[in-house]
């Protein structure tokens, strides 16, 4: 099925990776394609992708994260293999590869065409959609980046068959977040569901697409998608991106947002209690409370933190997010 956006199409299918060749030929008439991926995805899908994209000459570049060092290493390898402005980049992998690949595409030659092929649930329903690209810095997550749309997103749910339960639930955290923001009925359907079907994946993509098209540059409405991310990113950063997966960190972050919302009489207590049980059942969290003070410094570097405060995302009720500009000191006073 095709999900149309104002800038590119999202092709969503199941077990049709062989069709990717024709889909790419519709938007790219060249022959050379540079595939940015990681070692795990390369080992799993090198032969599959090579056989699928039979009309193209593929050059694979293995990345090792999304910091400045890995960015520079990938760019150097692309130049060593004589990449040109009219070639195509494919970002094949999860959110880390997608963010890095998009950022490389947006900066090399001041912009080169690229295609997203996300292989994890998190990247399929979230990070591959919306044109955000970024790498991390020593000061925080996604602080160096750009808005740069792919020319095509190719999503095949067959990729999800190789994910272990922790990685799948990592993506489910983002799906649950989308449902909390958008639709109580969807939340009730998916909150304990072991695996999403293709129509449920489509619904989460369509919600993000809707918000992105209202506010493509993250100036106001799109910020609701950062529900749980203010503390979530700080948790990831403090743990040096090695303890928590992104979905686990934002799970704690969503609970923090709900707890602060209760204290401001914005959020009903039942949402916190229900989500707490869901996240524990899915093993996305282990304990209810973290030591918040250790994250204070890293919250300061949140992208939504501006001179007059930080835009914090609350839930008035399921399906009704609210953005509130808060002073940093007021935010900490509520914990």
UniProtKB/TrEMBL annotation:
Gene name of the record: aroB
Location of this chain's protein in the cell: Cytoplasm
UniProt pathway: Metabolic intermediate biosynthesis; chorismate biosynthesis; chorismate from D-erythrose 4-phosphate and phosphoenolpyruvate: step 2/7
Catalytically driven reaction(s): 7-phospho-2-dehydro-3-deoxy-D-arabino-heptonate = 3-dehydroquinate + phosphate
PANTHER family (UniProt xref): 3-DEHYDROQUINATE SYNTHASE, 3-DEHYDROQUINATE SYNTHASE, CHLOROPLASTIC
Biological process per Gene Ontology, one example term: aromatic amino acid family biosynthetic process
Keyword match Nucleotide-binding: yes
Record flagged with keyword Endoplasmic reticulum: no
Annotated Gene Ontology cellular component terms: cytoplasm
Keywords, comma-separated and alphabetical: Amino-acid biosynthesis, Aromatic amino acid biosynthesis, Cobalt, Cytoplasm, Lyase, Metal-binding, NAD, Nucleotide-binding, Zinc
Enzyme class: lyase
Family recorded in the similarity comment: Belongs to the sugar phosphate cyclases superfamily. Dehydroquinate synthase family.
Residues covered by the 3-dehydroquinate synthase N-terminal domain: 64-169
Names of required cofactors: NAD(+); Co(2+); Zn(2+)
Matches recorded under InterPro entries: Dehydroquinate_synthase, DHQ_synth_AroB, DHQ_synth_fam, DHQS/DOIS_N, DHQS_C
MF GO annotations: 3-dehydroquinate synthase activity; metal ion binding; nucleotide binding
Stated name of the protein: 3-dehydroquinate synthase
Domain (3-dehydroquinate synthase C-terminal): residue spans on this chain: 171-305
